[in-house]
Description:
This protein is of the alpha/beta class. It is built from twelve helices and 16 strands.
Amino acid sequence: LVGCSSGASTPSGTAETPETNTAAPAESAGEFTAKIGGVFILSGSSAAYGEAQKKGLDLALEELNEANKGKLKIEIQYEDTGGKKESAINAVNKLINQDNVVAIIGPTLSGEMLAAGPVANEAETPIFGISNTVEGINDIGEYVFRNSLPESIAVPTAMKKAIENKGYKTAAFIYAENDDFSVSGFQTMKATAEKMGLENLGETTFSIGDVDFSAQLTKIKQLNPDVLLVSALYKEGSMVVKKARELGINSVIVGGNGFNNPKVFEIAGPAAEGLIVATPFSPEKQDEKVQNFVKAFEAKYGSKPDQFAAQAYDSLYIMSQSLLGAGKADRNALRDELAKLKDFEGVSGKLSFDEGRNPIGEAVVVEAKDGKFVPFE
Ligand code: 1QQ
């Protein structure tokens, strides 16, 4: 049993570990340390997701280690995947077997979780997705959790609000064919459009890594759809939106979770105007918890948090609460506590889980206006 659960706990204040005491003078007799792995995209073309996630976690870590003094000290060890499945698998293996973490937060992409989740599940180590929105994530196994609102809830919410009662009749689709999230998002968009009675004029694809979308968008311009559905990560998605407007496509554009990052405005510029997406988090929400988070985040980083930072922040509060419930840094005890979680009130909304541990929550629909997302009315 390599990296067995009890080994993940670092008891402090005991006679056997005098070095630990000198190394961590703040620890008291009743305090235990829990090391958590953070597996995110911290480099490459989708790095803004992981950077936001790391910021949210680091802020929560500061607050929690202060609040939990004498009871629990959390440490986070970060690993960068660059968005690659193979790197996510390697990171998860290393964190579990070498670094002896009690749980993992991440990886960033659904595709990475689908690849690396089974590794953690097999090793009976809780793994907690904070941005995995495709169907079936929790079906990987009972050690797999997430607080990210599935696209099966978010996308129909955005489409209904943007399209219903507006007289739109036709739709076209464009999506990244080499990303699990983008493919799954497209399928949800297509099924929703069909249910709403929109005529499907055509579907076209590109790859994550592409920079030229003229051929696909020229085809879409000829189709002249009332609504254009885009399922992609922020970089390519924003370039698609920009090119679409350049070519004179004036359809209403609805996107998926990939657009919930401020990079959209940097890349698409004014072409982002009017883009509609759904998100469980809004920094404008008049709620004390949300506003305290936004203030603390701005003070620490000089910018407003996005949805990815908010879900990361919430996840460490969930971990902390569950670790305190477990009373020790033990993988199985932590799993049982996480499974008991009900009606958690976080900055990214109220969260509860269905019997398959899938999050149930509400999405707000937002629209790009003057360089930021504002509630869509
Ligand atoms: C997923 C997503 C991406 C947009 C996360 C960055 O929702 O992969 O599920």
